Amino acid sequence: TKHNGRNGYHFFQPSMNALAQTQLQLMNDLWLAESRHELRLLYQPKFQAPAGPAIGFEALLRWEHPQRGLLAPDAFLPLAEKTGVIISIGLWVLNEACRQLSEWRAAGYTNWTMAVNLSAMQFEQPSLIDDVMSCLTRHNIPPEMLILEVTETTAMSDPDESVRLLTELTRLGVKASIDDFGTGYSSLLYLKRLPASELKIDRAFVNELRAEGEDATIVSAIIALAKTLNLRVVAEGVETVEQQAFLTELGCNTLQGYLLGKPLDPQSITHMVKHTPEH
Ligand code: C2E
Ligand code: CA
Ligand code: CA
Ligand code: CA
């Protein structure tokens, strides 16, 4: 390896193809992103159906890459998982989201919840419970205001372990949400045992939602299942008023999507709220 004063370490070999070089450079940059203050969070509001006030926000990670510009998670999360850097990035996300929530709480928005996405690798960390607990303490956040979103696939990869972990988190008072529901393979038996408080219907089903379409059947079935299990239902990716009306009619509790609110930086959120009559 050769040290390059400005850009950190380079692992380039003349024999490497361009793609491998790009990946290595990206990996190198990713390890430094946090210390270079290139990571930031956007916050997407969640609304009470059909069009109530914002009840909380989901933190969504972005990477301000010095050369490539603003990167969405799809562009770097797989690499972050593969290299393990997701662990420190995930801790940064948890901490920054809680810090932001405590700032909002101090400004009077004490009813807002904060949802944080957990990656599979984070979910498997033995220190997860301690990390969550110390984060809540550090920012003086009531545990029930924090929602941890875990995908159905992650939750079902080791169902017994997930039941154990979510039970511990629930004991702390933190809420758990099963994300991207409908894309994985849930055992109904385990779903019943999982101490989650909400299900998020995957965007793919909401996208295709037409009153007569096949996905209407699937979405109705998911909502009915969630109600049976006493779970709140969140629909993500709501883009049209038809979807909004239909999901509300089916009994969906919470709506999220570009129609109602895109992911925003914190400044725009306080600005938006100050200019909304409800607040
Ligand atoms: P997700 O958790 O399912 O988040 C929803 C994604 O859908 C977000 O994409 C959001 O910007 C996008 N979205 C929201 N409403 C709409 C809509 O109406 N239409 C469309 N087309 N898209 C909508 P984003 O921010 O690019 O994040 C993608 C995924 O990356 C997330 O999916 C989540 O799995 C992951 N992710 C984001 N932030 C974090 C993080 O801090 N940690 C971890 N581990 N994963 C994260
Ligand atoms: Ca999510
Ligand atoms: Ca999702
Ligand atoms: Ca997703």
Automatic annotation (TrEMBL):
Q: Which residues does the UniProt record annotate as the domain EAL?
A: 23-277
This protein's name: Bifunctional diguanylate cyclase/phosphodiesterase
Q: Which residues of the full protein are shown?
A: 411 to 689 of 697
